Description:
- The chain is mainly alpha-helical and 164 residues long.
- It has helices at residues 10-23, 29-36, 45-63, 80-100, 109-121, 131-163.
- Helix 4 packs across helix 5 and helix 5 (109-121) packs antiparallel against helix 6 (131-163).
Amino acid sequence: MAAHSPDLxxxxxxxxxxxxxxxxxxxxxAYWLExxxxxxxxxxxxxxxxxxxxxxxxxxxxxSESFEFDLLLPDDDELLSGRLLALKSxxxxxxxxxxxxxxxxxxxxxxxxILKDVAEFTRLDTNAEGEEDEAAxxxxxxxxxxxxxxxxxxxxxxxxxxxx
Length: 164
């Protein structure tokens, strides 16, 4: 993806997909790809298929009741600073995806709190190292996993009440 959008990375793209799908589980991969790429950009067929598979897998995991959803971040063998940078990018993408999803009603307190937390995580200091910072990183990623599922549920409840 970096060859197509140099400022975009896999974590940010995944965050955007998760945000879009939390707001509207019927969002299409085509819409996500339009938002992901700069206007006029195109992808090779292989890259496009890979991204569509990522989007559809994200949809499946978010819809799963078995709590399988996870953030797409670098492996633990990467430097913590790089994983923190990816986490910040994931959060930025998630917030962008939520915005692109066009929430039509005012959000409840829990949802607002989650989005404020995600916004705070975009300001994390990436100069971190050591066991204490590793533990904090693990705590934040676990919180985000849970928070995304809670937000998805809250938005789903709001969709259910607006349909009737």
